[in-house]
Amino acid sequence: MRRKHIFLTLGAVGLFVSGVSVGQKAGTSKFRKYRQPAYISIMDWTLLQARVQSIAANLPMDDGIATPTFYFDPATDKVGAVVQVSASELEAEPAGKGREHLQESAEMARGIAHYYLPELANQDFEIEFRAFGDKAKEAGKGYYTYAEYKNGRLIMH
């Protein structure tokens, strides 16, 4: 009888420890509260997306840099953005100006995302600046990565 209690106790402790370890891995995203369901009809959501895309499409490029399109990647628990750029326009600028404009654009986008997601840190945000044209055709895609912004740093390609 005593042996039975020991096995039951060890089994309960083992179950508790495994539950704690799995629980510690499961809900650690700092963005968890933003991923909760919210009531919005499919029609309202679709029309909101159409409106945002319409506004973005009608904005002119600023110094060869378009408006960012934001997304959340649950696999990496990061917020990201894709920004279309005109490589020819950026490269036609005086030395260092194109890079400076990309850096400013990245910091502005991160600042906007941080305003809505105060928990967002530099390591939680990435941008891919995509260019189109001949180089993209050579790469076999519709675009190529012109530059990236990761951990608060701009990386030119």
Task: Describe this protein's structure.
The protein has 157 residues and is an alpha+beta fold. The protein has one domain. It is 46% helix and 20% strand. The chain has five helices and five strands. A five-stranded mixed beta sheet has the order 1-2-3-4-5. A hairpin with a 4-residue loop joins strand 1 (69-73) and strand 2 (78-85). The relative contact order is 0.11. Residues 3-13 have low confidence and may be disordered.
Task: Based on the model shown, name its key terms.
single chain, 157 residues, alpha+beta, five-stranded mixed beta sheet, 5 helices, 5 strands, 46% helix, 20% strand
Structural class: alpha+beta
C-alpha end-to-end distance = 71 Å
Low-confidence stretches: 3-13
Q: Please report the total strand number as a whole number.
A: 5
Percentage of residues in DSSP E strands? 15-25%
Q: Which H/E pattern describes the elements? A: HHEEHHEHEE
Largest sheet: 5 strands, mixed
- Helical content stands at 40-55%
The overall number of domains is 1
Main-sheet strand order equals 1-2-3-4-5
Rounded to the nearest angstrom, the radius of gyration is: 23 Å
Mean pLDDT: 83
Number of helices: 5
Shape assignment: globular
